[in-house]
Every structure is written in C-alpha cells, then in structure tokens.
Specification:
mainly alpha, globular, 13 helices, 2 domains
Length: 284
C-alpha cells in the first residue's frame, strides 16, 4: 500500500516559459501578470527550501560514501528532487566532494526523516510549505487550496469501498467524508448520483471515532491510510492537515502510515504544479 507519484506537468512544453503553460488565457492581463509574479516568487522559495534540505543532508552523509553518484541517487529519493538537479546544485554550491577513501556506512541513508534528533515528529512536507508560503496572503492562498483542491477526485475512489463504508463503518458523516478525503458537498452529490444512500450512516445508533475504528477494522484502516497517502503525495497536503480532518494526532497518523503503508513526498515538479494551481485558483 502507499501512494504513487502522478505525472502532473509536461516538462517538454514551453521550456523557455514554464509559467505560460499553466496560466489560463481567460485571465485579464493585469491579473495574469500578478499571478505570474507570485508563482515565480513561490517557485523561487520552493527551490530555496529544497536546495537547503538537500545541502543539509549532503553535509551529513557525504563522508559515508565512496561513490558520488550513489549519494546523489539516495538523496534524490529522500528529497524528491531529480538527480540532475542535485548534481547542478552541488556544482553551483561547491558542496563538499565525496572522497574516494571514505568509508561507506549506510545508516538510514534511504528514506525520509520524520523524527528529529530531539525525538520530535517533524513532517518535511509541512516544513516545505512553511518555507514557501511565508506571508499572510500566501498562507491564505495555500489554505484555500487545501480546502478546495486538496482532496481526492470521486473517480479516484472505488465504489465498492464507498459501499463497504456505508454498510459496515459506524461513522458520523464528517468522518465518512474524511475517510475518503472528500469535500462534503461535492461528495454527497456524487454519492447521490451513483444511487447510493448516505442515510445508511444513520441506521447505527453508536458512532465510533475514526481513530478508534482504524484499530479494530483493518479494511477501514487501509482505506484511511491509502487515501491519506495519495493526497499527501499527489495533492501536497501535510500530515498535520490530514490528521486534523480525521480528528486524530498527527504522530499517530504518521506512525500507522509508516507501519502499514509508505509516506512518499511529492516531487519538485508536482510541488511546483500545485503551487501554481493554488495561485491560479486565487486569481480566477
């Protein structure tokens, strides 16, 4: 189980002007220019944040390697940046070289750190968001994106899973929507259009909090984690936001996902696409 990375943008189109392929032609010129400037600013913040994370890991790990290409490959998996981009950053930043006589000590070299040296939980995606969306206006733009676009599409959900949850899960309506990472109004209309009946949720007199239900029902647990991890990877929604939707502590959600699935950070291309979409939604 776990999320897989979607390919969201065409890197070959408009290589000289990557913002142009994203801006809708219907935007008035003034709004289009404002959106362009904001996207470029946030993209610059994005690269600065990812570059700093990669540099920090490089400084910690380069002495454990004898082969630079292997270090680049492993760091690429950890910070979700292409290997050629890491190589460019290394050259531009004159990062310390990998010495041929260094001793390889592969200690946790593949995978993302979610627990700090002080044994505190820290989501790298949340740190990235905090570094990119800095001003109050920018934070409001991202918050609006999370509410309106940071969900699964109904067609990304198996109808059999919806039927199972309606028949077997003693959840309140809010937790039912959170289980599938859905905005309530749109999902209710979708369910009605498919001929299912949300009133089935009310047939059970006892409501079980979703954080309790996932410890007792493996299928519900797997649905919660699979849907949350897809939204994490492909919509850029942090674990803290996902946990808030599910009314459970963020560490508990991360730990369950680490045990029964896999948290995969969005790629740099996906993050930049989502950043642009959040800005475009703000101006449209």
């Amino acid at each position: 189980m776990g999320a897989f990375q979607l390919s969201l943008i065409d890197d070959t189109a408009n290589e000289q002007d990557p913002v142009a392929q994203l801006l809708p032609g219907s935007l008035p010129k003034r709004e289009s220019e404002s959106a362009r400037k904001l996207i470029e600013k946030l993209w610059a913040n994005s690269e600065k944040s990812l570059r700093a994370s990669a540099k920090s890991l490089w400084d910690k790990k380069h002495q454990h390697y004898t082969c630079e290409s292997l270090l680049v490959k492993n760091l690429s998996q950890r910070v979700m940046v292409d290997e050629d981009v890491l190589q460019r950053w290394r050259i531009e930043g004159d990062w310390p070289a990998v010495e041929a006589g260094s001793r390889v000590r592969p200690m946790g070299l593949v995978g993302t750190d979610y627990i700090s040296e002080n044994d505190e939980f820290k989501d790298p995606l949340q740190s990235f968001i905090d570094n990119v969306f800095v001003t109050l206006r920018q934070k409001c733009i991202w918050d609006r994106y999370c509410r309106l676009q940071g969900n699964l599409l109904p067609e990304e959900i198996r109808p059999s899973d919806i039927t199972y949850a309606l028949n077997e899960a003693p959840l309140c309506a809010r937790h039912f929507y959170a289980l599938f990472q859905q905005e309530a109004y749109a999902f209710a209309r979708y369910i009605d259009d498919t001929g299912l009946d949300l009133r089935r949720l009310s047939r059970l007199k006892v409501r079980v909090p979703i954080r309790v239900l996932i410890t007792k029902n493996a299928r519900i647990r797997n649905l919660v984690l699979d849907n949350a991890q897809q939204v994490y990877t492909n919509r850029g929604i942090s674990i803290a936001t996902l946990a808030q939707r599910l009314d459970m502590p963020e560490f508990d959600l991360w730990r369950l996902g680490d045990l029964y699935g896999k948290w995969v950070l969005p790629s740099q291309q996906t993050l930049n696409h989502l950043i642009a979409q959040s800005v475009i939604k703000h101006f449209c």
